[in-house]
Design a protein that fits this description.
Elements: E1 18-22, E2 30-36, E3 39-48, H1 53-57, E4 64-71, H2 83-86, H3 91-105, E5 117-126, H4 131-152, E6 165-173, E7 176-179, H5 183-188, E8 191-198, E9 203-210, H6 217-244
Parallel strand pairs: 4-5
Antiparallel strand pairs: 1-2, 2-3, 3-5, 6-7, 6-8, 8-9
Length: 245
């Protein structure tokens, strides 16, 4: 499986090149530009010293994390109109930003944040497949940098981060399980799956679909094995980026 060569020269179990450029947004509490293959996303975290109204009404302790996701008009080969021009958020963007929020909330102890709202913004500069997985992976780095800043400012005594969180895509293309699909592979995949996991090796979310196809237990096991190995690499890359500050 790992010897088959793909269109971009990778073997089946190989991630695309990954790079983090931290502090890309100077006014954010934490930010990074994640470059993953030809997918590029700015992930920024801002902090509000209050919590949503529902938390106050229900007397929920701690803070909250919310996420927004958008694809800039020039991020794809043909111009993508901004959601605001349509007067509403499209269904895909809404689903992805809920996924980002769930994933990042799973990484932290919200009570340790105090009465704060952590806003995670993910803006896609260039899309070549895997934008939701790249957004989650980059968002965790931005969050960790924001936490370091809060600690340096003595606004947090202990880090609320419980575990690293990363995400990756896998799929079956021409009968072969592949790790980290680029756009052309994603379009041609018979099965497409996204994995979100933490550093403890636990699943946060699995999204798997047969695209007018079915898949077997054996194929599912192969996809999960690819995804788990890829996420271990991503978690290591995240920690390197966070340590560099």
């Amino acid at each position: 499986m790992s010897d088959s060569i793909r269109a971009d020269g990778r073997v089946a179990n190989q991630l695309r090149p990954l790079r983090f450029q931290n502090h890309i947004a100077p006014h954010a509490a934490g930010s990074t530009l994640i470059e993953w293959g030809n997918t590029r996303i700015i992930c920024g975290v801002t902090i509000e010293e209050n919590v949503p109204r529902w938390m106050k009404e229900q007397k929920v302790e701690g803070g909250w994390i919310t996420a927004e996701y958008s694809m800039l008009p020039y991020s794809t080969l043909t111009r993508k109109p901004r959601d605001i021009s349509k007067g509403r958020l499209d269904g895909r963007s809404s689903e992805i930003q809920r996924l980002i929020g769930r994933s990042i909330r799973a990484a932290v102890d919200l009570e340790k944040f105090g009465s704060r709202t952590i806003c995670v913004d993910c803006d896609v500069l260039q899309a070549d497949g895997g934008t939701r997985t790249a957004a989650i992976t980059g968002a965790f780095v931005a969050l960790a940098l924001a936490v370091k800043k809060l600690q340096a400012e003595k606004k947090l005594v202990a880090s609320p981060v419980k575990s690293g969180v990363a995400a990756v895509s896998v799929g079956i293309v021409n009968g072969t399980p592949l790790l980290d699909l680029c756009y052309t592979e994603d379009v041609g995949a018979a099965v497409d799956m996204n994995l979100v996991m933490n550093a403890a090796g636990e699943f946060i979310e699995l999204q798997g679909t047969g695209e007018e196809a079915t898949f077997t237990d054996t194929q599912l096991v192969a996809l999960l094995a690819l995804g788990k190995a890829g996420i271990r690499e991503l978690l290591a890359a995240q920690q390197t980026a966070i340590a560099q500050g």
